Amino acid sequence: MRHLWLTLLLLAAALQSAAEDAPAPATEKEQATILHWVGCGITRKAFMTALADAYQEKYGIPIQVEGGGATRGIRDVLSGQASLGGSCRSPLPTNALESAISLYPIAWDALVVIVHPDNPLEDISLQQLHDLYAGKLKYWDELNSNMPHKPIRLFTRKGKISGVGYTLRQKLFADTSVDFPDAHVFKSSGPLEKTLEKDPWAIAVTGISSARKRNLKIVSLNGLQPTYENIQSGDYLMYRPLYLTFNPTLPAYREVKKFIRFAHSREGREIVRANGVVPYLDAIDLLQIQTSERNNLLEKIRQ
Q: Which end of the chain is less crowded, N or C, counting CB atoms within 10 A of the terminal residue's CB?
């Protein structure tokens, strides 16, 4: 993990030097290329669909965008089943296959606590969120004494390596092997969010770009909403990078590099902002803040 953060810091410096220049127009040969992107649904909603549409309009290169999850966004690209991918988590440090992936951070996403619009919960503390996922809080009046004594239905993602689940374990426990309560488990974020739209007494965590496209209430965390300013400054505590993944051995690598350069150009960053997330280059300092937060959490756990 330490090696990854150092790599990203060096990468950020390189990206800043080239970010203002969009790639050159595609040649006739390049225009015959069709890229295939696969990855997590949150990354797709956060920026990929909009960037792909803009790239095709500007350069004539179509990009087929397919979901499938963060794990596919890494492993399908390594196996050559996709030209490039998207992931909302870093490669698994214990997985030799995933460690071979190349990735570029494109944006900062916020993990947000979501409830039904009719649910009266307005704010939750980071400690309460930790205790909720540790199985210590089971009734709504334990979160807020003014709420009814009704059971909390905590919606979670299946498995421990989904983008949301993996990052949540890192942020709350500094341990990606922690078990979450499993009474209400969903295969992906989409079905989870759709079900929560109909359940006034359910709660979950998802990505902000996905939550904003649903009829859901985003609950403040430690009194703060996940605004652009709060994410950029690091004041909103639940944030993470969103990545494009690529494999330099694939035939489409040259075109993939051009697309990544477009994503970091002034035009690309405007598209990312318009989708409600923070461009990576707008908040490079979050790398250092995130490392410090993780070290502080590990120290607290050891105590």
A: C
Q: Domain of residue 284: give its range.
A: 2-108+240-294
Residue 302 has pLDDT above 50, yes or no: no
Asked whether residue 73 falls in the same domain as residue 143, the answer is: no
Is residue 89 within 8 Å of residue 163, measured between CB atoms?
yes
Total domains in the fold of the chain: 2
* Token duo for residue 205: 């965590």
Torsion of CA 47, 49, 54, 57, to 10 degrees: 170
Residue-wise pLDDT tens digits, 247-263: 999 999 999 999 999 99
b/e burial code for range 226-261 (CB count within 10 A of at least 16 → b): bebebbbebebbbbbbbbbbbbeebebeebbebbbb
Establish if 299 belongs to a structural domain. Answer: no
Contact 242, 277 (CB under 8 A): yes
- The 3-state DSSP class for residue 56 equals helix
How confident is the model at residue 294, as a pLDDT?
56
DSSP H or E stretch at residue 228:
helix 228-233
> For the whole prediction, is pTM greater than 0.70?
yes
CATH code of residue 32 = 3.40.190.10
Q: Are residues 159 and 104 in the same domain?
A: no
User: What DSSP character marks residue 225?
Assistant: -
